[in-house]
Task: structure prediction
Amino acid sequence: MKLNNMLSASEYALSGSNSIKVNLQHIITADNENNGVSSEFGQSDVLDIMNSRLHEDLQNEEKEYTINFDEVDLRADLSDDQDIGKEVYLEQAIVGTAKMYAEKTQWINENASTEEERIMMTKALDSSYIDHVAKAIRQVSSDLDDYFSSGDGLLQGFSKEELPDLFDKEMFSSHLADMAIEAKNFALETGETVSKGQIQAHLINEGTTSSRVENMSYWDMLAVVEFIDRPQSDEYEVNDETQNVGQVLAQKEMSMNKQINALGVSDIVKNSMMEVGRRESEGIMRSRAFGDDMKYYASLKKELDEEYQRLMERLERYAQMIEELKELNLIDPSTDRLMDILKSEGETKNQLRSLKDAMNDVNDESDSLENNPSSITEGDSYKRMKAEYEDEKAKVVE
Result:
């Protein structure tokens, strides 16, 4: 029996969009706060739990239904694996899921024999939709968070001030959830014939300019995930053997910036992406300079210690020579040999005092740098790399 004189499945689904949005936002928030584990459900597989509750409700009512809940399970037709590519995965999660939701809703409309069946099937569809989209939002949000913070770790270790975040993961997750709901509602309003291209065009047209990178448009989002999914060239790789580190880092950064400019994203997104590269370059320069200076201090300490041992051995020889003169009863101030030994001994002791002062200075400088890594920017090694970096980047401006 077909449904008559009642809300269509599409109308019913649209009327429940606010509920879906609330549930979706709740799951995302719980995941962000609990590292992917919802505090309410205790696990991230929302579909199994919600459908279990639905089936419990049906059993409690002691009614038999002819419907197959698997028919409205989106997971069977959508991939949870990013091996398909980050851009394709995002497009599928937002656009493909919305299109499929509209198609499944039409199927419910045509196959549910009672309003109660329609409601139960729509709830099952909603739980399936929430599960898949929430997983995708978690994954995409984590990918972008990892990217926009990728230049922070190294640099933060050599900075006095806390680096300002370039990206707010929770804010982006909420924005992406809104976008997913917008895509789903548009697909429902358009009907089962809606194409992915129409949904994408709608999202692009509905996008607004924002002063925050987290609220980037759908177009910018696709461009960013495609960019971070690209294989990275090792042409400008910096390692311990790399000479002219500042120059190489500037070349790498300019190459990346050229690619970013070609994406055609909004200025706020573009500038944030370029800042990732700048922070990475700065962090590598400070880290490399710190390592070079600490190696220099270690080498200098070894050199000074060897000199100290050499002088101490010389003093021991002078002491032995004086003892030999005593045995020969030649300890006489008028003895040239004794005077020469005493003079050399005095000079060696003066050298030892100066050497100890130098050793103390080196130890103080080394300890100061080790205890205050951010001071590396005051050292010659960093200044040399920074000058190379700035000179290389200035060539483009010229």
